[in-house]
């Protein structure tokens, strides 16, 4: 789905705003609509998206645990590397 497509502008975006502002679960609405948006364009990337979410959650927990001892820097560096790796290694990035 392209941002300038009729489907996005007249169906997806208004429905998102309606759900986002009408519910108290706006974070969940944002997450759900983001996943639907990515799945619409290329469903295989949803697997990458879920893997990234899980890895970032675990890294966030590790960073929080390591902050007390002042050893969070390696976990932050690991998070940066982990999040940039798909961009550097994808075949479409070089095209």
The dominant shape is flat
Q: What helical percentage do the residues reach?
A: over 70%
Mean of pLDDT = 88
Helical/strand content category: mainly alpha
Q: What's the SSE pattern? A: HHHH
Tally of structural domains: 2
Which properties best describe this structure?
95 residues; mainly alpha; 0% strand
Topology:
Elements: H1 6-22, H2 26-41, H3 44-67, H4 73-89
3D architecture notes:
This protein has 95 residues and is an all-alpha fold. It has helices at residues 6-22, 26-41, 44-67, 73-89. Helix 1 (6-22) packs antiparallel against helix 2 and helix 3 (44-67) runs antiparallel to helix 4 (73-89). 0% of the residues are buried.
Structure summary:
The chain is mostly helical and 95 residues long. It has helices spanning 6-22, 26-41, 44-67, 73-89. It is flat and about 50 Å long.
């Amino acid at each position: 789905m392209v941002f300038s497509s009729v489907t996005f502008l007249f169906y997806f975006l208004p429905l998102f705003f309606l759900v986002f502002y009408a519910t108290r679960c706006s974070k969940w609405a944002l997450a759900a609509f983001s996943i639907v948006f990515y799945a619409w364009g290329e469903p295989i990337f949803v697997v990458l998206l879920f893997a990234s979410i899980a890895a970032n959650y675990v890294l966030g927990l590790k960073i929080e645990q390591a902050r007390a001892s002042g050893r969070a820097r390696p976990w932050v560096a690991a998070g940066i590397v982990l999040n940039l790796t798909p961009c550097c290694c994808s075949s479409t990035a070089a095209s």
